[in-house]
Write a structure and sequence with these properties.
The chain is mainly beta and 741 residues long. The protein is 6% helix and 56% strand. It has 7 helices and 47 strands. The longest helix is centred in the N-terminal third of the chain and has 16 residues, at 2-17.
Length: 741
């Protein structure tokens, strides 16, 4: 903290004595201050330096040069954001995004404005091929005033590529890319084509990946479950220019992936409720995500809007998680001959989203010099979800089928088929009061309906016939921000934003009873929505001195969360069955600060420094899910011609919270995992060998450090036999080559 304060004082002193040099040489591309434009902060194009609040932008060029293949690679150099790994049914997967210590379903994640699929047990939210996107924008802090429910912690927006990003009129674009990643022994082949004609433009991108389970560090004493997988993705866009002011765009975004697993961690001996020896467990995961949309865009200045768009969309996700086991069951005790069984299970998760949205933009100015940038619109979406679970055993001697396994009868559904209807009306106005001061006012009204539908499969789980929750609720979220230019080179900003998350189909209506293990999960019709209040205050500087340029920012934030939804033991039945429910727990507070500085030293060198610090409390106790303090230092070298580029990054992470109380249960007490501080180093080399050939290479974890990401292992115990499955890879190499025809 002391170092950051000293750094800030030095920066302010420097800024106060440096006047922005309008005569700086901008003939060299390294010195041109090309202002990055972001949309996520106010749903209107705003230069990143004028954003009120904290936004990070990751561009396709950076994704390509770092050879990023998944969300872990995507955010590896973004402070305040992490991507934990999780497990379920022997699979380990990328769970999703966490922003400033909070993640899961509390982060809105959108692709071209459409909500990506939810995650469920055994699945994650790494369902977007990062090769398809031209930009990823990350809004840190409550985002419900813009994006509705689930915006407690922030929002992440993927924007896919357009033909105009690559081609020009009568100058089509064609490219082929091949890459290899040692960390998962994966290969990728990608083809892309784009064209622009007189009244039409189009793009198609096809990507094929073959991959394996991520390699662990070579010093681990355990091997991950073997996995071989393949995935195919297609992005197709075609845009018709009907006239000078109206266009229609059709989008098809199709992804399919399949993974074969050898689930060795699911094999071995278990004694309860019946002695079972499992000799083999093989898995097959088969998933698809299909998104289609049609968008009408129009430009026509009138009293209501200058431009706008209306979009209709549908997205369907089907996921099958199949496991086949061979096992011996000692039905008559350990001294009797066991009976051979083959077990089949398929746990599905299917979700379909359809809806439409409209958005309008209007700019208004008056004689006093005040300007308004107004964005408003309406959104409607219907989300249908189901979770059927099929499981049975086949007696290999008698060929009889058994559907009662582990104290439960299959097939079933742990929550009823549910339709969720969300409707929202939003308004945002960025008011330029003077050339130095701007104000942002935003508000959104959301209505939320949860409509469960009971069938026989759900009643098989809901043996107690618990009453279900039918929700019909609404919420209003607000946002207020202010930015003021203290001088030509320093601005100060402050913001207040609200977030909320309505109870979803799982937390409201999950119902499940296991008589063998004497526990059940019951619905809770009295759940309230989670809410958050976010406060930010920050300083931002932009200075030019000769051939050098310095951009920096320092932000302090505090997010207060109320009515957290989580499971808790709420009672016991007369038969002694423990009853768990999702309930609203106590409030949580997370605060901290983030510092970033980018310095263009000269025509060849630039430097990046980022630092994040967060603390969280619940009932006066430290919140262990908060990521440790992190420092990222990046040094970039570019050749005089710009054809060659070398970037090195140091990621320095402090140790986790120490002195954690042990976790105690029926089998005794175990200490929680604590992690030491560590430093890892990555190196990236990029070469434009010619106008047509680009080569990218990366070496991650150069020093071969063995480490764990705290986001993935917090809350686990030191004696967890599968702990090492979460260790990161050691030193790995990746490379890609692209040919532009």
């Amino acid at each position: 903290m002391f170092k950051i304060i000293l750094c800030l004082i030095a920066l302010i002193s420097l800024s106060a004595n440096i006047k922005a040099d309008d005569t700086a040489d901008t003939s060299n591309n390294n010195l041109v201050n090309i202002e990055e434009i972001t949309v996520i902060s106010s749903r209107a194009p705003i230069p990143l330096s004028e954003v009120i609040g904290s936004v990070s932008v990751i561009k396709s060029d950076d994704i390509e040069k770092r050879i990023a293949n998944n969300i872990v690679d995507l955010i590896e150099n973004t402070i305040g954001v992490s991507a934990p790994r999780s497990d379920g049914y022997g699979r380990i997967f990328n769970e999703g995004f966490r922003i400033r210590g909070l993640g899961g379903k509390r982060v809105n994640v959108l692709i071209d404005g459409v909500r990506i699929p939810d995650s469920y047990v055994g699945y994650g939210r790494d369902v977007v091929d990062v090769d398809l996107v031209k930009k990823v924008e990350i809004l840190k802090g409550p985002s419900s005033a813009l994006y509705g429910s689930d915006g407690l912690a922030g929002a992440i927006s993927y924007t896919t590529k357009d033909a105009s990003d690559l081609a020009s009129k009568n100058n089509p674009y064609y490219s082929a890319t091949v890459s290899y990643d040692e960390s998962s022994d994966s290969t990728k082949v990608g083809l892309m084509s784009a064209f622009i004609g007189n009244n039409i433009e189009g793009l198609i991108q096809i990507t094929r990946r073959d991959t394996n389970e991520r390699k662990l560090h070579n010093n681990t004493e355990i091997e991950p479950n073997s996995m071989t997988g393949e995935s195919n993705s297609v992005l197709a866009k075609i845009k018709f220019l009907l006239n000078e002011s109206i266009d229609v765009t059709f989008v098809a975004d199709v992804q399919e992936w399949k993974n074969d697993w050898d689930l060795t961690t699911e094999t071995g001996f278990s004694f309860f409720p019946t002695p079972i020896q499992t000799s083999s467990a093989l898995g097959l995961d088969d998933s698809t995500r299909h998104r289609y949309s049609i968008e009408l865009g129009f430009t026509k200045e009138n009293i209501l809007f200058d431009e706008g768009r209306v979009t209709a969309f549908t997205q369907k996700t089907d996921q099958d998680q199949i496991t086949n086991k061979s096992k011996l069951i000692f039905e008559m005790g350990m001294r009797a001959r066991p009976t051979p069984y083959a077990e089949f299970q398929n746990f599905q998760f299917n979700q379909e989203i359809y809806g439409f949205s409209s958005e309008f933009f209007k700019e208004i100015g008056n004689q006093s010099g005040i300007k308004h940038q107004i964005v408003y619109g309406f959104e409607y979406e219907s989300i249908e979800v189901e979770r059927p679970r099929y499981r049975y055993e086949t007696n290999l001697i008698t060929r009889q089928l058994n559907y009662n396994i582990g104290g439960h009868t299959y097939p079933d559904k742990t929550f009823p088929d549910t339709e969720t209807i969300r409707q929202g009306i939003y308004f945002s106005d960025r008011i330029e009061i003077t050339s130095k001061a701007s104000l942002v006012i935003g508000a959104r009204y959301d209505s939320y309906e949860l409509k469960p539908s009971v069938d026989e499969l759900f009643n098989r789980s809901n043996v107690a016939r618990n009453a279900l929750s039918y929700i019909d609720d609404s919420a209003v979220s607000g946002k207020l921000g202010f930015i003021y230019d203290v001088s030509d080179s320093i601005s100060i900003f402050a913001q207040y934003a609200e977030g909320f998350r309505s109870p979803d189909y799982e937390s409201a209506n999950i119902s499940f009873t296991n008589f063998a293990f004497y526990y059940s999960v019951a619905p809770n019709p009295n759940l309230d929505s989670e809410e958050s209040d976010g406060y930010e205050i920050g300083l931002r500087g932009n200075n030019i001195l000769g051939s050098s340029r310095l951009n920096w920012s320092l932000v302090y934030y505090e997010n207060d969360y109320e009515d957290f939804i989580d499971t808790q033991l709420t009672g016991r039945s007369p038969r002694g069955i423990s009853i768990y429910q999702y309930v609203n727990l106590n409030d949580v507070t997370i605060d901290g600060f983030e510092f970033e500085a980018q310095a263009l030293i000269n025509e060849n060198y630039s430097l990046y420094v980022g630092y994040s610090n967060s603390d969280g409390e619940q009932n006066g106790e430290k919140l262990i899910s908060i990521d440790p303090d992190q420092t990222i230092i990046g040094l970039n070298w570019s050749s005089d011609t710009g054809r060659f580029n070398i970037r090195g990054f140091a990621n320095i992470t402090e140790g986790s919270i120490d002195g954690l109380a042990p976790v105690c249960g029926r089998s005794g007490c175990s200490n929680l995992v604590e992690t030491p501080g560590r430093a890892t180093f990555d190196l990236f080399f990029n070469a434009n060998i010619s106008d047509n050939i680009a080569l990218n290479m990366a070496i991650r974890n150069i020093t071969n450090e063995k480490f764990y990401d705290w986001a993935s292992i917090n809350g686990k115990t030191v004696d967890d036999p599968e702990l090492e499955l979460y260790s990161n890879s050691g030193r790995t190499f990746s490379a890609s080559i692209k040919y532009i025809f």
